[in-house]
């Protein structure tokens, strides 16, 4: 039960060997932060049983209404929040998109629904329910402005 940076200790066939016209950037970004390991840029959670959950990019920040929110933090919070407090949600992902009023962007959650939950709420009511749930359980500024429900 530990969280941290996802690093890989051995080479694999699909790993990057350089960044076009910027090999120094590859070295500084992926090989220097954790010497002897390839840093993927992602955070991960490892359970006591040895299962890994990717939690998102560690350096990805969403600026919304003067609040800086890490996608990894929100990405970890929302699945726990939604899955534990709403019967219809299987998992979620968080991204930002351009917004002319709230600085750089707002949050967007993609939510696949649990197969057996089709009788719970509708695609029209679920986004509002999840926005309200996030506002109550975390903070109003952390609530998604747009929720995309996937099936």
From TrEMBL:
What's an example Gene Ontology biological process for this entry? acetyl-CoA biosynthetic process
Q: Which GO terms describe its molecular function?
A: acetate-CoA ligase activity
Q: Which SUPFAM superfamilies match?
A: Acetyl-CoA synthetase-like
Name the GO cellular-component terms. Answer: mitochondrion
Q: Which InterPro entries match?
A: ANL_N_sf
According to UniProt, the name of this protein is ACS2L synthetase
